[in-house]
Amino acid sequence: MNAPAAPVPHTSLVRPADVARGLGFGAVYFAAAMLGLEFRTEPERMALFWPPNGLLLGTLLIAGPRVRWTALVAGTAASLIANFVGGNSPVVGLGFTLVNVGEPWFAAWLLRHARSGPFELASGDDVFRLFFTLLATGLVSAVPGAAVIVFGLGVPDFGDALVAFWLSDVIGVVIVTPLVLAWARFDRVTLPPPLIWCAVELVALYGGLAALAVAVFTEPAGGRYVLSFAFPLFVFFPWAALRFRVRGASAAVLVIALLAIWNTGRGRGPFVDPGAARAAQLFMAQLFVGVLALCSLVLAATQVSRDRSDARLRDSEERYRQVTETIQEVFWAMTPDCARVLYVSPQYEMVWGRTCASLYAEPGTLVAAVHPEDRAAVAGGLAWYDGEFRIVRPDGAVRWVHTRSFPVRDEYGVPWRVVGISRDVTDVKDAEQARTVLIEQLQKALAEIKTLRGMIPMCAWCRKVRDDTGFWDSVEGYISEHTHASVTHGICPKCLDDMVQRFPDLAAAGDEGSAG
């Protein structure tokens, strides 16, 4: 009977999941594009910032290859539809779409190749890398973008169009991409405890920020002096960055960017000057948002890097603690002058017979416990030592300890701590002493055996031991004293025959006794 055929894997280029992702991303891209079109200047109809670029770049940075291609296709279609709905001609819409899709793709390619693995804002270097990449790729894409503005929208000044397109793309990415990088990962949002006070803090932070931003940026030109400056807003950004990291800082930047750019484009806020050109006013607002975003994101990303370093340090310390508390040796660390104990493992209490707390309180007890006869060996201190000495425990017991210590130097070669390992070698010393005694006994026995050979008299004719003057008694006594052997005193058969021949009466008496 034939076995059932194995199912053929699905090899279609387009999967239902890809279609669902594409439709979802396209809808979000279209909404972001319509938001950007709301921030257009009149009558030039140039967008002050373009959030879809930031959305697409963030997606390309965190997604896998298949999702990236889906996002590119969906973003292209959504951009064409948004330009058509916004009133741009098909040619202008196609030109803007090619530029706005190509720039995030190029920036994502550069950023992904600048570091291994997915890109994230995990350090200040990552933020600067993102900003400078955006400035470079935005300037490259601004040239064809400005050409579309000049030839498609009829703006006469190519330089103004170049700067406007460049800034709108950069600001759009600066505002949206950190949001995508921070919030698109579905990991657990950790909030500083306690949660109820954290919730109150969030309301105070973003409520106060929004209220002050509305007061600052909705003021008519030439309004009240205090609210005509945007600098009070800076107070909220270190708060958001240090407490809520990149997520908090990116959300705060979004609030300020929307209010600042929207109101400046409509002639309100501190950046509106009746005597200045409109492009200059918008440039100041965009510059304000960019600087604010850069500073707050660098601070937040640096804090993230510090958090991860602290986590790695805690993990390393935990593993280090487990090792030092498990091994039998005593591990200790002190300042170079041995005046302060930085760490001592719990095995110190077993070897020295004293508590670790007593050593922390009185570092000198480490050396004070050395046996008086061995203190000369450690007179130079333990900063660089490798040897053995005896210690006297509080109960009077004497223990042998082998200690090896050395200084730890910084990058300038200056010692900044002394670390050492002390091992209880009393059992080894006892074994060595027992071995030494045994060797001495064996050597003595060998020497006595040599003497024994010289003291045994032998007959030169029959080769038998003579016992002229009690030599055999000496041999028997030596064997009994130095060995576990015993000496028998029977009569050999030859000597027995000689005795029968020499003493016949003794033999006859023996026969009568056996017969009776």
Automatic annotation (TrEMBL):
TM regions (residue ranges): 20-39, 91-111, 131-155, 161-183, 195-217, 223-242, 249-265, 285-304
Membrane topology: Multi-pass membrane protein
Domain of life per record: Bacteria
GO molecular function (one): protein histidine kinase activity
The keyword Nucleus is annotated on this UniProt entry: no
Keywords of this entry: Cell membrane, Kinase, Membrane, Phosphoprotein, Transferase, Transmembrane, Transmembrane helix
Record GO cellular component, one term: plasma membrane
Location of this chain's protein in the cell: Cell membrane
Alphabetical list of Pfam families matching this protein: MASE1, PAS_3
Enzyme Commission number: 2.7.13.3
Protein name: histidine kinase
